[in-house]
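Exercise 7. Predict the structure of HNH nuclease domain-containing protein from Rheinheimera salexigens.
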Amino acid sequence: MKSVMQQQLDFVAYIQRMLVEGEFVATYKFALLHAIADVCVEQPLLSEQSELIIELPTLADKLITLYWHHAMPFSSEHTGESALLKQNAGAQSKVISVLFQCQQSNIRNIRQLKQSIFYKPTFSAAMATLKSGPLWRLQILAKQEECFLYPHTRSTQFITLNAGIANCFRRFYDLVVYLARNAWLQKIQSIKHNQALIGPQSQLQEFLFGADRNALTKAKPVLVELQANRCFYCRKPMNNEVEVDHFIPFARYANDLGHNFVATHRACNNNKRDFLAAQSHRERWQEQNLVVNGQLITNELSDYFYCDADKSLAVSNWAYQVAEASNAKLWLAKNSFEQAKPTAEVFILPVSKREQSTVFQSSEPAKKSEPVDDAVKLPYFPNIKIACGHFKTGDDSDVEYLDAPLGAGKLDAKTHFLALASGNSMNGGKNPIQDGDLLLLEWIKPEKAGSLRGQVVAIERYGIGGEGQYLLRKVNKVAEGHYELIAHNPDYQVELATADMHTFARLKQVVVK
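Solution. The predicted structure, encoded as tokens:
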């Protein structure tokens, strides 16, 4: 059985997925989510893991209450139902129409409604709407049923919240209601009929927090050219249907990064919506935007957008890591999805990209004054401390050249370098590494890295200020795409590799002990 904390984390992740992966052609699902949350705080629980039976009449009554104010005329310039805000893009919803008629019959509040002859037909409309629509569609994510909240039993009498779910609704009531209301509001604002009633304020959120659509036009010709006028997703010619898509959706990360754009068909863009793209798309995006055309994109778009391939990579790693943790669906093609899966390795940028980084720019000795004798000399970075403890900050601001150690096999200054060990987390086992030992390391190229399982590797990540931080650990694969980082000294805890870590070198040998 999951711990309460883990279930609560899964609950929040599921609500996030629901609002992204669910289809919301009307506002009923938002109202239902709000109604369930209300009921959970109104009814006591025997324990944190209690199931909760919610009768459908209770939910129908909640819908009537939630929609009561929505049935009031919004515009004084229109008459009748044309003055009402619509709850979907088609005809006005049945519940709103019935409530509007009640209010036109001098019913001024919910209490009067329940005491009047109008309540029975209103309740019947709410029940019919509930059972035919949102109740059994709320938990359809990316075209598939995922009944995390309650089973889809198709009961005409009640639903039963799964064990612990009612407690999650109670724990995160404010968050759920805020998300439901905000999404509800955005849906109403997106309906064309409503925009004529609301006026310019209907675009307020897009105005304040939306992407710069004018600036996106600057990216379009660049992307069209480097993609040979083919849609990034379906690979077919785009003709005149070109749109610029945020590869990591703007709804997930609300900043314009120059390397995060791809050119797509309008249909592909609309169908992808706010989903993360499938892993195959992700790999092509990395190759196209970060490796092959990384510098071109920076040159062409840096006047309009923030261009940093490393940051774009970090954001994408974060987004897919969250998707994996929450069992999210990834968009593959029109109405086609795949399950988010762990990546095969911790992502690292190829050498051609990393040479643009501030870290290890000196790994090519040609960039420094070179020794003139015939002996093999290797670059040694005195300011890089490969931490045998916790991540330690360093930089490549200084480089020296030392004789290559004897007996280490064929060495090359382009692929091997020297650095000091720092700390004592690797000073155990059969091959201890002591504080101050000189380490011979081999630069890892992604295309030639091979399996890293069981090897001691140097790992890099960036600190808050952008400084490089380095750690030495043994790698162990624990599950598909998941890796443990193990210290030789048992006093240090095992760590899990995360998306912000990059394996940049493997330990070849200890030179000085």
